[in-house]
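S.,

Sequence below, as promised.
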Amino acid sequence: MFAPKRILVPTDFSDSSDEALKQALELAKQYNAKVYLLHVAEPIEQCAVDYCLDLSTVKAAEDAEILRVKEKMQKELTKFSEFQEIEVISDIREGKPVEEILREQEEKGVDLIVMPSHGKTGFMKRLMGQISEKIMEEARSPVLLVRH
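The prediction came back faster than expected:
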């Protein structure tokens, strides 16, 4: 019988991601597993077309974004106070979502990825759908897609 011990949940802070986190927490409770909550931030481009920001401005923007995401992750976890006994380790990575999700899986020895089948709406919905599809193709562990 499959009993995951390390569950990875990528989040974009959407309702769909919340549902995936809830499912992961329920599995973690049932199997006494750890949950790794991951957000992948897109890097801030220093130059666009013919205008470049100075490096200190880019660094300040990145630091502010990391702080904002950390606060969102803490807020995310307070939504599920009934699962306080479960060890949840949150991480923020910068880069391309598929690459960073797979890297996190490898580094943490994850044996199950729980993620939404789609993201927010519009462009993000299509993007998250593409991410989910690529993760299913390339992951070394089972992937549970959660529909919301």
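The helical segments are 15-31, 55-78, 97-108, 122-138.

Coffee later?
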